[in-house]
Description:
By secondary structure, this protein is α/β, with parallel strands linked by helices. The protein has 2 domains: 1-32; 35-130, Oxidized Rhodanese, domain 1, CATH 3.40.250. 47% of the residues lie in helices and 15% in strands. It has a 5-stranded parallel beta sheet with strand order 1-5-4-2-3, sandwiched between helices. α6 links the parallel β4 and β5. The protein is elongated. The chain starts with a helix and ends in a 7-residue tail after the last helix.
Amino acid sequence: MLAHLLEFATNHYLLTAAFAVALALLIFSELQRGGKSLSCRELTALVNSEQGVIVDVRAHKDFAAGHIIDALNIPYEKIAERMVELDKHKAKTIIVVDALGQHAGTVCRELQQAGYTAAKLGGGISSWRGENLPLVK
Length: 137
């Protein structure tokens, strides 16, 4: 198997080089998305010590169906216009939660550019559910 892979790489060095460049760019862009990724345990510790505030960026109907206790709901599309609501929490870490982690990095980067300390829940609310942690409606 490895021999076939090496044979392909040597016979198609331009394709292999293009793949390597594309992979490097993908990794670089993912690292630039912003915000440290937190586990459910780390999120809980930050909130319990009153050093973190949860901002759920899912749509209101998804938030209403179940969210982490005391989370604020600011939908992803409205984060720029409603960011001022977070000014009273500027001394804390803003923990961004979404459905699967697809928007949280972008929101964290926006928050960091605005001067906030931001982190994201790795895997979004689905990781929270996966660990059977409580949700409120």
